Amino acid sequence: MTKNNITPGVGSLPWIAVPAIAFLGIGIELLLASVDFPYAVWAGVIGCVIASCILCYQAYQKPRRDLVSLFTPLFAFLILVIPNEISSGGVIVQTVFAATITFLAVRVEKVFNTPKLQEKTMKQMLNEYIIRLKPLLAVIDEETGHLVAQSLLTYKFGLYANAMEKSTEALARLDAITPRPVTLERALLIFRERAGGFAESRVTANPEHVFTEEDYGDLAIHISDDQIEDSTALDLDNALILLYAVGIETSPEDEQALEEHQRFIIQILESYKEKLAA
């Protein structure tokens, strides 16, 4: 999971300004009414209207928007300004309105002041993973990348024997690369072993090649031991994602073909979605 950090708007007012102005207006109204000032009611109305506008401004400034609070100036106008049966209630209606917008002001401050958590999509995760692999990808030449890409594409089409051949060719080219990309080497060995099993219609129950702890930094899916249901399947999934990343970043010739099959890799990541989120 990830979240957006949104700073409060410049000049935002504290929530206490809403009840302070609303009840101040009502207090002034009561004071003026005590001396029989004919327009005393407007002090309470103006106080509530100004307070509702402040609440609207506060709600607009928050990372998440509360629609009810945004429309309080309209409610204030309809309830308190336009002559009607409700507005004739005077101080009582104004007090209820002031209490209501006070509650909304507190709610906006406590509930809507925190940015909404946004779930990271698997495509975003894949892109971030590829960025994280830059040091490894930097040493892979285009021809090796092409062989890696072809290994994955032939595997995707069920041509497991061809996938084994391409991966063997890619492994041979790693001998000339310094520093040797050992994680990619293990990915190709895992991939070739599993493809060989599929070619012979057998399940690889006790694989010879597996990822080690030193590879975890270059793998897309890294979950705790208690979350692993099938380590053999997990190693293959990590190998497929790594081969995709290498192919699409180092082989321009295969970029379009790999992009067309990106959904295949996304589906692998989605199968671990809950575990990755945990």
TrEMBL record:
TM region positions: 12-33, 39-60, 67-83, 89-108
Going by the UniProt record, its keywords in alphabetical order are: Membrane, Transmembrane, Transmembrane helix
* Name of this protein: Uncharacterized protein
**Organism ancestry:** Archaea, Methanobacteriati, Methanobacteriota, Stenosarchaea group, Methanomicrobia
